[in-house]
Amino acid sequence: MATTIMNLDDSDHHNDDHINDLDFKLTIRPMKFDEIESAVMIFSRANLNDSLNVVQSYYQSDPSGFFVAIDENEDKVIGSCASPMTTHGTRILGLYCVEKEYRNFGIGKKLFSKCLTTFNNDNFGLCAVPSKFKIYKDRAGFRQIEGRSIVIIEGKSPNIQSLRTAEKLDQKYHLIKLMADNIDYHESLIEKIIEFDKTVQLDNRSTLLRYMFAKTTTITLAVLDTSNNDSKVVGYGCIQLDPIGRSMPGPLYAIDPLIGEVLLAELIRSDGRFSSNDQLAYFTTDNSPETIRWSKELLGLQESCRCEKLFTKFIPPFNYDYLYCCHSPDFGC
Fold this sequence. Notes:
alpha+beta; Aminopeptidase; 28% helix; acyltransferase activity, transferring groups other than amino-acyl groups; GNAT_dom; Acyl/Acetyltrans_Enzymes; Acyl_CoA_acyltransferase
């Protein structure tokens, strides 16, 4: 499987008998911005992938939630765990990884515990792969089961020609492309996207979204309804590359399946980095049947795993009716 969520080696998470027997000096401390890429690459080497742009955006919105393990002898990052504040007073655990040669020493457990104890009054969430579901639920305190799962979709040579494109939209809809080099000219559009995002997240993610839109390698598309004077956004999506070079769309929210399908098609077609790419990965939820249908019947991709959403204190509200691709495989829908 090329992508999984919250799936670190069992013995590393639960055994720290040998934490004092290390032959190097270990430091667990807050992550620096220039250490994000190292952590993302460790994550990728463990067959866990998230876009560098997405992780950087979450870091910029809440740097206090990111921690690294450092081998002081070698002066290098050897592991990480993050729990940025997302919405509704909830921190989502992700970017949880330790370099292979440093596992089985309890380093993962120390990183995981650092996140939980630093913000022990907050609600925490995560997405657990099936083999780790009972561990997180029964032993780590994630006892609130939402009843939703993240569905991992991935594959090669996607048949993007099978997706409906912008020509299929009603004439009242207008597609706009937003990139880092033109965001200064689109402040009104950005504000409308933020307002639409609130109808999905049921909370304000202005800070996070502005950081994401400003990334030079992220492309954002929005669909405007021009049938009235205020021209509201009725869907938007972003796309970027993950560390192993796959196109990774997300988030992708829309008021109906046609707009969602068109956004996915146009995001992939928006740039040669994506349209010529023979690998695609995205993340949806098990209550988004249209997205799962696109992946299998139209794109020819495969469902590789379903990861259950768990929380420690409460289940935050979310409007799943508009969700087609999740924002991040790590930090939430």
